[in-house]
Every structure is written in structure tokens, then in C-alpha cells.
Design goal:
The chain has about 70 residues and is an alpha+beta fold. The protein has one domain. It is about 40% helix and about 20% strand. The protein has helices at about 5-15, 55-60, 65-70, and strands at about 20-25, 35, 40-45. Strands 1-2-3 form a 3-stranded antiparallel beta sheet. A hairpin with a 2-residue loop joins β2 (about 35) and β3. The mean pLDDT is about 95.
């Protein structure tokens, strides 16, 4: 899964659960941006590159979700 797909899946989950989701590309350096899920957030690296398994789990943990939530 790349960064753009991660953001799409989190937005879809937010619509389904009624949680506000927003992505701010200017909140990070270079190609990084900040993804807010409710009152929690995580930093999304380059949206075109693949997210490795460990980083994906860490990002989901930061916003309080699991891999099953976005599958």
C-alpha cells in the first residue's frame, strides 16, 4: 500500500464511522504531510511510495486503528 492508498482507506473509514479525517500536506517537510483522524494524527511519508509493514503498523497505532479496520 502506498501513502495515497493509505489516506483513501482512512478517509473511507472516517466516512463510515463518522470520524473527521483531514490531510494537511503543508504540515510536513518535503513530500511528508499530516493525516488527522479525529483528534489523533500521524505523519504520512511520500504518498507515491510504498509503506513498509512496520511503518504501516506504527502509523495505524498512532491514530488508534488496526490493519483490520482499514482492510
Amino acid at each position: 500500500m502506498n501513502g495515497a492508498e493509505f489516506i483513501r482507506r482512512i478517509r473511507k473509514l472516517g466516512r463510515k464511522t463518522g470520524v473527521s479525517v483531514r490531510f494537511e500536506p503543508r504540515s510536513g517537510k518535503g513530500s511528508h504531510g499530516r493525516l488527522y483522524y479525529g483528534d489523533r494524527y500521524t505523519t504520512v511519508k511520500d504518498r507515491r511510495k510504498e509503506i513498509k509493514k512496520g511503518l504501516l503498523h506504527a502509523m495505524l497505532d498512532q491514530i488508534g486503528l488496526t490493519l483490520e479496520d482499514i482492510s
